[in-house]
Amino acid sequence: MLTSDKVIVQLIVDQCEKHGIKHIVFSPGSRNAPLAIAFDENDSFITHVIHDERSAAFFALGLAQELKEAVAICCTSGSAVLNYYPAIAEAYYRSIPLLILSADRPPHLINQGDGQTIVQKDIFKNHVHESLNLNDQLVSESEIWEIQTQTSKALNRLSSAWKGPVHINIGLDEPLYNTIEKTKNYARTICEIENDKQLSPDFCDEAREILPRSKVLILCGQMENNERLLRELVLFSDNTNVLVLVENTANLQGQQFIHCIDRTLNQFDHNKKEYHPDVLITIGGAVVSKKIKTFLRNSKPKHHWRIGADFPEMNTYSCLSYSLEMTPEKFFQELNQLKIEVNKLNYSGLWKKQDILAKDKIPAVIKELKSYSDLVIFYNLFDYLPDNCVLHMANSSIVRYCQLFDPIKTVRYESNRGTSGIDGSTSTAIGAAIANPSKMHYFISGETSFIYDSNALWIRPFPKNLKIIVVNNSGGGIFKIIPGPAESKQGPRYFEAQHSQKVSIIAAAFGLTTKTISNKDELMNILPEFLKDEIQVLEIHTNSEQNPIDLNYFFNALKQ
User: Fold this and answer.
1) Is residue 386 helix, strand or coil?
2) Spatial contact of 445 and 425, defined as CB atoms under 8 Å apart
3) What's the CATH number for 369-559?
4) Which CATH architecture has domain 201-351?
5) CA distance linking residue 9 with residue 15, whole number of Å
6) Checking DSSP bridges between strand 179-181 and strand 2-4, what pairing results, if any?
7) Residue 252: count of CB within 10 angstroms of its CB
8) N-term to C-term CA, the chain
């Protein structure tokens, strides 16, 4: 088959194929032409072409998230590379494997006045697991052998216990478009086997000593679906002294779990010691709720066991005592096998009572709201959202509103909570929908986030299995909810950045079909139909002044 005449490019392509990388997301350019040619000529790869590098990187993140495998992104030199950074940071903090292949000028042309040239070596070093800087000036077989070793070791990080992004920067000299018939293979790899870690005898002894006399709180952050973990966690939480708090992004649902943390925390006095845990066990990634973080920092558990391979030294609650670098399912399986004698503390029931009291009041509270606000929209959305779909949530107020209502059992919840930025949520949802065409995907976003990532709508083919709901409250609605900016006279201009843009016009410009609604009657009539018909983008206008009023009323009414 044909390939680029550059050996370093052939080597990288062979290594990617050997390490099981299938999807490559390209952004057009000239300096990365040898890579585009070589990957395109190899039938082992599926290539995508997306013009905007920032959108392309988030699109790749959505592919990797959905496929549960590493995805590569490839761009030309200069500022194009910098546009990858937001998605790389998101992948780093969510432990999603992305391979960044950035084309560069050869070393002797860096900082010499050539166009599209910046210092690209180690440019992402603070947010990648490995960073290699290569060039096409290979001179010997031994050098090729060494680069195969380096590349293989770097690509192994994509499938390690602590996954995340890897960067390979390749200096390429002109000519860039020459091809040859491929005759050699550079797929020599190094196989690295990680040990499946187990609980130490000392830890097991301590667990047997501590757990029977303790109130145990398990906090579950963002995770993929994990049926084995769910089974072990349900079994462990049969002990009445064990409380399990989950967010919808944890994708763990159990009858005895508490799924709406802020709603439950709203119900009781946080200074009451009976609600404070003795042992805190944390699993998964990011936690949305600021209230639970404040509660745990103030209640100061005596023990905090952090479970997982990623960020082992992260001490979110300032009480870390053990960091166990093993999978959560393995941890709870071994803990269950210890058959620890349980106490009679009804710690779980104490919290669950507050959760049920709040949940039972919700229908009546919502019915009392005569206005048309963000809260009403989310309440009704979860009434109509179909089973067995994927719900993608943009950041800021969107993901927080979604946490107020119990998750639907068959729905999977996704959100870019690694860095919690607004910059690539649409692109990520599109990537996920394309990666998994057998499921319907629904993406709900604020208008600021949607406009910010509007180049995502340029992606073709646009997935038919994706529907987008945009809640347009004419600015950053989160800043009317959180303390501080809501009381500031600079709030409307500097924090909310109020505007009068209509996202339906932007979506229509990209050829998407749209519908706009602006009152409660239209919402109740159109929302159920939108979830079924051919309309791709539904824009819902709400009153930015009414939104915080209704949200405050909601919390106050539940507490009474």
Assistant:
1) coil
2) yes
3) 3.40.50.970
4) 3-Layer(aba) Sandwich (3.40)
5) 10
6) antiparallel
7) 25
8) 73
> What is the distance between the alpha carbons of residues 219 and 327, in angstroms, rounded to a whole number?
15
The C-alpha angle with vertex 315 and arms to 161 and 57, in degrees rounded to 5, equals 50
Residue count (the chain): 560
Residue among 96, 144, 100 at smallest CA distance from 122:
100
Residue type for 162, please? W
Angle at CA of residue 524, ends 520 and 526, nearest 5°: 110
CA 137 – CA 8 distance, rounded (Å): 8
Query: What is the 8-class DSSP label of residue 305?
Result: E
Per-residue pLDDT band for 234 (boundaries 50, 70, 90) equals very high
* Strand, coil or helix: 128: coil
| Count of CB atoms situated within 10 Å of the CB of 388 | 12
The reply to whether CATH 1.10.940.10 applies to domain 2-179 is no
Q: Could you give the residue range(s) of every CATH 3.40.50.1220 domain in the chain?
A: 201-351
- Token pair in block for residue 492: 């409307």
How sure is the predictor about 491, in pLDDT bands with cuts at 50, 70 and 90?
A: low
* CA 274 – CA 345 distance, rounded (Å): 10
Helix, strand, coil shares of the chain as percentages rounded to 5? 40, 15, 40
The pTM is what?
0.95
**In the block, residue with structure tokens 């499938």:** 159
Taking residues 359-383, report their average pLDDT.
Answer: 92
Which tokens in the block code for residue 116?
């599209």
As annotated, the residues of the chain forming the CATH 3.40.50.970 domain(s) are 2-179, 369-559
Q: Alpha-carbon distance 410 to 329, whole Å?
A: 21
